[in-house]
Amino acid sequence: MHLTFRPINLETDFAYCVAARRDAFVCSFGSDEGFEDLLAGYFERVSERMGQPEWFYRHIFVDGGWAGQLEFRSTSPEPETGYVHLIYLAPAFRGRGLAPLLQRYIETTLTNAGCRRAMLSVSRDNHRALTFYRQHGWEFVRANPKHAKTDFYQCWLLA
């Protein structure tokens, strides 16, 4: 199995971005109700951020086929801390041992950018994601004050 990470090409692959975001939203909140609000301005935000060195938008390919998406940045309000916005694997690629490789890619990229820690927000109802995060070094930090159903988790990065 050959795994590759490529910068997202919005002109040709935006439909993958929307599909990944929609499925991740459903996995987190049980339906896509409210998803369209999140999608408003998404293309423009990603397009603008892709030109900034602290943002990382990657599509994941396995043996040449699209398998998922990562969205993260090497900055956050907290010092030396990166922030993960999306770790997504398409359903056909879940449970195949790829998620630790995605986490390693994020950790390496953030470490190389000077981060000592990563943070993310995860839905309390996304049991599969929570199980993975807890088994792979992510620790509960606090409830997310901006979203009643999510909590912040952190992971210390290896030097």
Automatic annotation (TrEMBL):
Organism: Salinivibrio kushneri
Pfam families: Acetyltransf_1
CDD domains: NAT_SF
Protein name (record): N-acetyltransferase
One Gene Ontology term of the molecular function aspect: acyltransferase activity, transferring groups other than amino-acyl groups
Keywords carried by this UniProt record: Acyltransferase, Transferase
UniProt cross-references to Gene3D superfamilies, sorted A to Z: 3.40.630.30
N-acetyltransferase domain sequence ranges: 3-159
Top-rank lineage group of the source organism: Bacteria
